[in-house]
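Quick entry between incubations.
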Amino acid sequence: MAAAMELSCWGGDWGLPSLHPESLTVMAYAKFSGAPLTVNTINNSWRAPKGDIPVLVSEDIVISQPAKILNFLRKQKYNADYELSAKQGADTLAYIALLEEKLLPALLHTFWIEAENYCSVTKPWFASRIAFPLSLYLPGKMSREALNRILLTKGGPPLYSLTEVEAQIYRDAKECLNLLSKRLGTSQFFFGDTPTTLDAFVFGFLAPIYKVCFPRVQLQEHLKQLPNLCRFCDDILTCYFRLTVSGHSPTGQDTADANLQKLTQLVNKESNLIEKMDDNLRKSPQHPPRKLTTLKLAAGGEESSPLSRLSP
Amino acid sequence: TLCFQAFLQMCNLPIQVICRANAEYMSPSGKLPFIHVGNQVVSELGPIVQFVKAKGHSLSDGLDEVQKAEMKAYMELVNNMLLTAELYLQWCDDVTVEEITHPRYGSPYPWPLNRILSYQKQWEVRRKMKAIGWAGKTLEQVLEDVDQCCHALSQRLGTQPYFFNKQPTELDALVFGHLFTILTTQLITDELSEKVKNYSNLTAFCRRIEQQYFEGPDKDGATAAARSAKRPLLR
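Done. Structure below.
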């Protein structure tokens, strides 16, 4: 077994283990692959966060970006992608690129640039977890970095003002969410029944949008219209991140709860399928147009046809 | 530029390639290339695809929703990795910058304008790299990323003629454009093109598209213009 590994990352709230998408991705991957990580959330101590968060420390090795951390975990034999075919591995890379290009700008905007959100939620939350006086400086710096990133990657001509850039990135993000929803369909995870790297990344990006309560929530509202993505986030939270008061899930209840989880998932799947079938039935034409002329001749026909159309 | 030509050839639309020094300023979005049809000017791949679609030609109609999602995801991968790697190599690798990029970019202008403009462009590109986190990458890491991307593309292509089996799509045009440019551009080192050459199905793919869409008796005009346009740019 590898040496003890420690992960430093931002803490959580609103039912999430972490608010920061990259930290959440790493934590989810660790849960999926069974890697024993000790998670240290950054709190109000003098060990100020330097450089990028999340940071993995194992013996003397310090690794900082999510992709590199995941590579390191894979080399230590904690591989959640073991059962994927080569083509699925390629798809994973492609979808992660899609997330970073299309969804991340809007996520950064919602958290760090939208004035109401930033002032009322993001800044106080992060400031409360950083030691004074760094708390006066660091949130502002993160906000400026986010703005910089968005403007440099998305803000070229013909978009000349920030509002146009904002409109474009939200359009892109909504399209990305639609594409993810279509790709997920009715399955539990993106590649079958076991979660993989792609699930970790998607969860890391979607869960903050889904759960954090902001004043301005257009992206969250759009996400809530895609029930399979919401179900995906909830499933991962309940299965892999059940935190008790002490922060560790109790081992005794695990099996019983695992069965309960599976049962709930099956029931959810069934109800999704039933809903889908219902939709299909409702959409299919109950009364083909050519029959209407014959119905009009019969006196009672007109009354019965609207009635039968209304029945579910 | 090549991906646009490939895309338009795949839609069977005749095109004429023209080189202009002030092309960046003629384009409505400041980005090259752009197409000029009748009295309309459209630039960038996304709007050009939409424009062509509105005129009744589309390559991805035969795909279902999940495949369209996959296609968009792969296009983003190519943009994210290959395009950024090309930019990095052109503007952030000091040797290449000095010997190739500066002279080439500044060539239409007199001194000192050529130096000023190319330094300005370099500064812009470096800022962008820093914002997305590529500034800290060494050349080896960039090459490794390119390798990973080519590996993914190669896996996805497999033994099929095109990425979505029988019909070429926008993704094929985009990949062809980038890979062909990498394979044929002469740089200080050949490491980038070597990485691509490691994947035989990708090189076969490029060759196949080149033969099918860029060679042939009635298409010589377009390819000759394309080739001669490329020569002064690619030295």
